[in-house]
Description:
By secondary structure, the protein is of the alpha/beta class.
Amino acid sequence: MSDHLAPAVEREPGERPLPDPATAREWLETMTLIRRFEERAGEMYAKAKVGGFLHLAIGEEATIVGSVRALRDTDYLISTYRSHGHALARGTPPNAVMAELFGRVDGCCHGRGGSMHMFDLQRRFLGGYGIVGGNLPLAAGIAMASDQLGRDEVTLCQFGDGAANQGTFGETLNLAALWRLPVVFMVTNNQFGMGTSLERHSAVTDLFLRGEGYGVPGMRCDGMDVVDTQAVTAEALRRAREERQPVLVEAITYRFRGHSMADPEEYRTREQVEEWRRRDPIASFGRRLGAEGVLREDELADVDRAAVERVDAAVVFADASPFPPPESLYDDVYVLGDQVQGWYSVDERSAGVHRGEDERELAQRED
Ligand SMILES: Cc1ncc(C[n+]2csc(CCOP(=O)(O)OP(=O)(O)O)c2C)c(N)n1
């Protein structure tokens, strides 16, 4: 383990109490689904079923599930190109995520986004972005919209340790704090930006401290522990929602695989990877559920089998789904505001047109 991690998370793993058994089981199921899904996605990439790039988050499942489970259904989530797990945790069916990887019409973006651009408006998962640091200003904009509409929603913005060095980080945190936006920034510190370790890309390696100068307090969680991650993120979301205080959460984690599928991993030792693998977030949570009497050995095996079956079914589904027809190439390139329910065209906005739920909400605010 790198030296800087020693004081990172002061809580011992397992120190926080487990949630109720059904919730604990669901967290394990979702983490296992993500792991099995991503392993198969890697295999499918090797078989050329998946085009473009493929970034796996194997090892980061507790960070993903813990943070997403702290959200309400009405909250927004925005992430990076490493976000198959975020879509699955938010509830996008594995069939739709796999079909998206395969570039097929039944994918969650009808095969147009691919691995890096997962998106599920219905579940308020607003992507999936390939530009490092590009999602931070978008998160602030989403939070600003929620704020101006008087809604009780928070936006959770997930990005990597490398992204914390982008100019957008400082620019966004400043405005988020100044305008008291309901947004939580979560830096998934998996120790590397591509092949550059945290120590080599950041003068301040305690990333959660980076927000203080902008008026954004920091919190840190053990991103290998789903219980700790959920608890810390929940508190950050509460502060954003109730106190209009943006918060920066740093999740300490590790990716067990390379940055993307083409990565010789010359920047780290096998021993370091093995050391982190001993803290595997799924195996350790499973062991804990066994030790605390939540799940028996055979039930733990059932969780894994069920995940494998869902992923097998997703591959069959994706392979049976057609490619988008060539004549649909220009569909959905631009969407006019008035074609999306609840949104407005520029003309409508200036004419003061409001519709449906938004109309009522705005009218109430004007009262
Ligand atoms: C603006 C921009 N610069 C560079 C890249 C190339 N790039 C893709 S991923 C990546 C590393 C980002 O690392 P980090 O933010 O730590 O996220 P992680 O990949 O570890 O999840 C880089 C530099 C990019 N996609 N966008």
